[in-house]
Amino acid sequence: MNGKIIELTLDTCCYSKKTESLVRDLKELEKQGLIHLYYERWSKTEMDNWKGPAKPSIIHLMNVTSKCKNDACAIPAEIEGDINKKWEHLEKIRGFSSKEKKEIFTKVNKIINPAGLDGKKMLNKYGDARILAYHILRNRDIFVTLDEIAFFHNGKNRILEEEFPRLKIRMLNNELINEIKEMTKSNFRDNLNS
User: What is the pTM of this model?
Assistant: First the structure.
């Protein structure tokens, strides 16, 4: 992270009335040019299943505080009829191949869902693995969550961080805000000394 803006992916569960002030604190750090906040498209899919009066305000919070990388792209006319060239074009735009996506997802899923994806929470389990896999594939710095069971139970965070050395998984709390402030100060000092 030396000399670059810290990129965070927020898990879907970070967007709630209880955590709104923390998310807005992160947004303030982004406004200062210290970090970038992202969510993954799957978060919108998860939110589609939410019920309750707070849903519109939570979706609004996500939309105004974070951005989502759009992998959709126009296919040039000269390759439109060639499926292999279409996939190559998409992979170039995305920055990773379908094979890499499958490999990373499989590794992540085995760690955070060792019992598999069966059960009532199947979509949540799948979503957790998918969002983290995309975070890793996009080479972002810190994955932020509130889901202790999926990402911290039985040392899953340590196992994931060993498997993916660039990965940092943190809980959304005041300690995270302070850690990021320290990291950005350190980056600033490193840039001054280079």
Answer: 0.85
